[in-house]
Amino acid sequence: MDVKAAVAYAAGEPLSIETIQLEGPKEGEVLVEIKATGVCHTDAYTLSGKDPEGLFPTILGHEGAGIVVEVGEGVKSVKPGDHVIPLYTPECRQCKFCLSQKTNLCQAIRATQGKGLMPDGTSRFSVNGKPLYHYMGTSTFANYTVLPEIAVAKIREDAPFDKVCYIGCGVTTGIGAVIFTAKVEPGAKVVVFGLGGIGLNVIQGCRMVGADRIVGVDLNPSKRSIAEQFGMTHFVNPKEIRGDLVAHLIELTDGGADYSFECIGNVQVMRQALECCHKGWGVCTIIGVAGAGEEISTRPFQLVTGRVWKGSAFGGARGRTDVPKIVDWYMDHKINIDDLITHTLPLNQINDAFDLMHHGESIRSVVLF
Ligand code: NAD
Ligand code: DAO
Ligand code: ZN
């Protein structure tokens, strides 16, 4: 079938809006009509050429929501008409990783997903007979996409696509890191580095679980008011701190953070995020994705004396199980998504969404099909 898509032909080039071809779902796959998609930092990272896994030409996008229109042979968990959120972290419930209950990193289709292909090793997208790569197993910058059955979360039908698409990455990554990865408890003192589309969701997750002090750190002072709206209690702009930032944060948190979160992707900040943690128990969760080949460092004594470094992908959420619950939290007004979606655009203006992100003018832009 013909579909309308934003094609990334090469790193560093704007996306090209055109009609391309999509093959129907094979065994174990579903065809989904994408109704809305967020534009995330990770799409920009891959488009920039810095992503070592980045393949071109491709259809980017991994933060969508839509409706199942057709299912391939053997698909049992969803049917045409179901509303779904695509999952770049699938949940097969059968692999060693899923069965371990220790991680959300299902490996059932990891090898082919990382190569930009469907599980049978081929692509469903093409243009003029030439294949295009899939991206993160989702490719939501097209009005139709094909996904493995294990990579869709079925959601309630009254949830608005233009809002809940953000649960496909940013909301779940931020709130999930607080709840599923760090397991922040009521009364905790928290430091959040980076108040963008991820960090603001970490902040609302911390407020939701009853954290006592929520310190936000950002170089951009314009992030202060929205972060306060989402629960930040203290704002720190590193440019305004005379002396050592880490010492200042330790003082602000009465001896160090119980939990810190790095939501930038900067390896120097990752060190600060660990070292501002409380001696003996402070846990630092890395969410930001650093540039290819970059490394983190600290004095090992920081770990010997009880600080812990951990990481979180997709907020530690098991997509098919947890995403529908997060949609419920939104529909029950337990979390705020609306105020984080600062721009909505049609597909033919998708490149503007990247510009808004690069200029720090948006929290999240959503493309409507
Ligand atoms: P963003 O650009 O919206 O936000 C980053 C914020 O950090 C901005 O407000 C910026 O002003 C601030 N900042 C930059 N450098 C800083 C510094 N040195 N000190 C303090 N503040 C600084 O980005 P985002 O969409 O929130 O994404 C954040 C990171 O999370 C990215 O690296 C992204 O790739 C990653 N990410 C990870 C996952 C995951 O599952 N782990 C999922 C999605 C995104
Ligand atoms: O299982 O090895 C694996 C890879 C899982 C990929 C997790 C990606 C999370 C970070 C990338 C940012 C996503 C928008
Ligand atoms: Zn699995």
TrEMBL record:
Q: What is this protein called?
A: S-(hydroxymethyl)glutathione dehydrogenase
EC number(s)?
1.1.1.284
**Protein source organism:** Thermocoleostomius sinensis A174
Q: Which GO terms describe its molecular function?
A: alcohol dehydrogenase (NAD+) activity; S-(hydroxymethyl)glutathione dehydrogenase [NAD(P)+] activity; zinc ion binding
> Single GO cellular component annotation?
cytosol
Enzymatic class: oxidoreductase
What this chain does, per the record? Has high formaldehyde dehydrogenase activity in the presence of glutathione and catalyzes the oxidation of normal alcohols in a reaction that is not GSH-dependent. In addition, hemithiolacetals other than those formed from GSH, including omega-thiol fatty acids, also are substrates. Also acts as a S-nitroso-glutathione reductase by catalyzing the NADH-dependent reduction of S-nitrosoglutathione.
Keyword list (alphabetical) reads: Metal-binding, NAD, Oxidoreductase, Zinc
Q: Which cofactor does it need?
A: Zn(2+)
Any one biological process term the GO annotation gives: formaldehyde catabolic process
Keyword flag Metal-binding? yes
What is stated as this protein's family in its record? Answer: Belongs to the zinc-containing alcohol dehydrogenase family. Class-III subfamily.
PANTHER family reported for this sequence? ALCOHOL DEHYDROGENASE, ALCOHOL DEHYDROGENASE CLASS-3
The catalytic activity, as recorded, is:
S-(hydroxymethyl)glutathione + NADP(+) = S-formylglutathione + NADPH + H(+); a secondary alcohol + NAD(+) = a ketone + NADH + H(+); S-(hydroxymethyl)glutathione + NAD(+) = S-formylglutathione + NADH + H(+); S-nitrosoglutathione + NADH + H(+) = S-(hydroxysulfenamide)glutathione + NAD(+)
- InterPro entries from the UniProt entry: ADH-like_C (IPR013149), ADH-like_N (IPR013154), ADH_3 (IPR014183), ADH_Zn_CS (IPR002328), ER (IPR020843), GroES-like_sf (IPR011032), NAD(P)-bd_dom_sf (IPR036291)
| Positions of the Enoyl reductase (ER) domain | 12-367
